[in-house]
């Protein structure tokens, strides 16, 4: 089977394999595309939490992005954990050099176990610069609240927050509604022309480690293969929901999802 597209992943490493670069590679590969990476940080973690974080130097992050892309040009880029101001500035500089148009940004801020993965200065730079260069930004509710200073309690608040992100320079926004107290999962896709609700029955489980990483990588993969951005979001949400529903139940804490779930890829790409 030949890879359908090439996706460059810029994100941190998760030693437990459930989130971060590891989840991204599994997602891109299972959806039939070729994954490349630029590692921004190394974390020691498992399903119960994060023990330590070591940042990769900005120079080495830029080298990974640029040297890889010179040889194998990516069709899309997924960006995850950006731990420091230096990391964000290095990524911005390299993205400007390689000039890839399809960029999916998952503004990772806090690990599933509660550990903060980005400092306050970095959040300001991400808010001021990074969201403007992304094709799509995919915050969950706590991340959207941090970026917009809007408390989100319902779907109307999600729309208001998404519009605020557009005002800040985002081109397209997908706010993930998993943190809402509701039996229905509301994921909202929004740009200046349209609003689309993706509604699904919530699966009550603690096996949700890496769902945000997986979703953004799935979107990047489908988008890199020529699907529209909205359709890519729809298909990626279905992929993640199925992965949650078939989770292997590993670990003592927030377990990983099943990236190798049984969706028929050929049917999905028709």
Q: Could you walk me through the main structural features you see in this protein, from its secondary elements to its overall organization?
A:
With 270 residues, the protein is α/β, with parallel strands linked by helices. The protein has a single domain (6-142, 169-176, 207-268), classed as Ribokinase (UDP-N-acetylmuramoyl-L-alanine:D-glutamate ligase). 40% of the residues lie in helices and 20% in strands. It contains nine helices and nine strands. It has helices spanning 20-30, 58-71, 85-98, 120-133, 141-148, 155-167, 211-224, 229-245, 265-268; strands spanning 6-14, 34-46, 49-55, 76-79, 103-105, 136-137, 173-175, 184-190, 195-201. The chain has a six-stranded mixed β-sheet, sandwiched between helices. Strand 7 (173-175) and strand 8 (184-190) form a beta hairpin. It starts with 5 loop residues before the first strand and ends with a helix.
Topology:
Layout: E1 6-14, H1 20-30, E2 34-46, E3 49-55, H2 58-71, E4 76-79, H3 85-98, E5 103-105, H4 120-133, E6 136-137, H5 141-148, H6 155-167, E7 173-175, E8 184-190, E9 195-201, H7 211-224, H8 229-245, H9 265-268
Parallel strand pairs: 1-2, 1-4, 4-5, 5-6
Antiparallel strand pairs: 2-3, 7-8, 8-9
